Amino acid sequence: MFYKDGTYHLYFQYYPEGNQWGPMHWGHASTKDLVHWTEHPIAIYPDTVLGYIFSGSAVIDTFNVSGLAVDSTPPVIAMYTFHKRPGDIQTQGISYSLDGGMTYDFYEDNPVLPNPELKDFRDPKMMWDGTQWISALTVGQEIAFYGSENLLDWTLLSQFSGEHGNHGGVWECPELFSLTTEEGVRKDILLVSIGSGAPNGGSGTQYFVGHWDGTTFTAEHEDERYMDWGRDNYAGVNWWNAPTDRGKKLFMGWMSNWEYAQVVPTYKWRSSMTLPRELSLVELDGQFHIKQQFRLDGGNGFQTNLEPKMGLRGANTFGINFSAEPQWSLRLTSAAGDTLDIWTSVDSIYIDRSKCGLVDFEPSFKNIMSGPRKTTGAGYEMYIDVMSLELLADEGLTVMTATFFPKEPFNKLEFEGLKEGTLTSLRE
Q1: pLDDT tens-digit readout, 43-73
Q2: What is the CATH number of the domain that holds 193?
Q3: Which of 133, 249, 258, 334 can pair with 203 through a Cys bridge, CB separation 3.0 to 4.6 Å?
Q4: 312 and 247, same structural domain?
């Protein structure tokens, strides 16, 4: 993902011949307001020799350190994982764009990183650390950091792992970046997704707060920290070059879970992305944590006061901002009897989708989700978008995302413990 000239570009794993996993391409979509999206032709196709195109990243080579520019147009450099079958051999490749990311040319000296005899060697995420280009890759259950001066030739700097974090599944989709508190304290952050073993089952994304010294990342805590405690936010990363306030980043994740991603009851499409979220850093009881806030630059429709009991009409595409008692509960119901329940205790937040429409396609889909509260702050943001719930609770410190498949749209909302709030349609 990258931002250029007023447009946010998103590339995603895509198989054009079906809605289950297949030979991976890079699909492409873009937006100017983070709400209305335009899908474009496939950006990068599999290579007949090196293999499918797995996850990666894209940056703008402003100063043409790669030497791939033509005239004065800075190239967009995409780095990704080739996955070759048979043998499941993974290497890293480069493609570059001279038209702002719409089409890509294959770099003639691929792969730029051959496989060092590892089974899982994947998902390069590039960043500029102030002195050099860095690419973070997963190698099994570790993160390898490579450095480069020209985005083409890469040298191994160090590896991070070992005793740190959740090792319940293969590590995937890393990212190294920095955040700064309002008080000016800067910390380096390492995102690491896991394919299985997340707290509520299946896949999830953990993060580490620490320090990058130009060669090595050192975590400063031992506890596990997660970007999202729901079951349906995985492999998220930040936009390159997105306009944000100083010290913040703009994040988006894949809204699904590998325990059931290929069997969810959708047909012409399968899976979607979360809403964009702005990340900031806050200090709480001497520890630093990521805070999230929705970032939508357009698309708000009608607005009304949120009531303890109210009817809903039309498409279920709305957001609610509210304050509530420390312990509260919210139920959404449909005329078909679908129910979606969200509630809190003193120390946790819960989501129950077990009675919300189609749930029997995978046994664990009906399990109640829970997330620990770091504080009982009064501020909440939540979006419902037809078949998804995204909740930023307690001022964005506890986050939960869940998908569901109701038989009919919700037509009633019941809220116990509400203080005040507003409901805003996403549809204009």
Answers
A1: 999 999 999 999 999 999 999 999 999 998 9
A2: 2.115.10.20
A3: 258
A4: no
Smallest CA-to-CA distance from 13 within 277, 265, 258, 266 is with 258
For residue 163, with 0-12 CB atoms within 10 Å meaning exposed, 13-18 middle and 19 or more buried, which class applies?
exposed
Would you give the DSSP letter of residue 368?
A: P
With contact defined as beta carbons under 8 Å apart, do 238 and 253 qualify?
no
**One-letter amino acid of 348:** S
| Cβ proximity of 316 and 386 under 8 Å | yes
Range of the structural domain that residue 397 is part of: 303-425
Residue 238, beta-bridge partner list: 251
Residue ranges in 229-340 assigned as alpha helix (H):
none
Collapsed DSSP state (helix, strand, coil) of residue 258? coil
pLDDT by residue (tens digit) across 266-321?
Answer: 988 888 999 999 999 999 999 999 999 999 987 667 899 999 999 998 879 999 99
pLDDT digits (tens, 9 = 90+) for 136-146: 999 999 999 99
pTM of the predicted protein model? 0.96
Residue partners of 290: CB distance under 8 A and separation at least 6: 179, 189, 207, 225, 227, 279, 280, 281
With vertex at residue 132, the alpha carbon angle to CA 127 and CA 136, rounded to the nearest 5 degrees, is 40
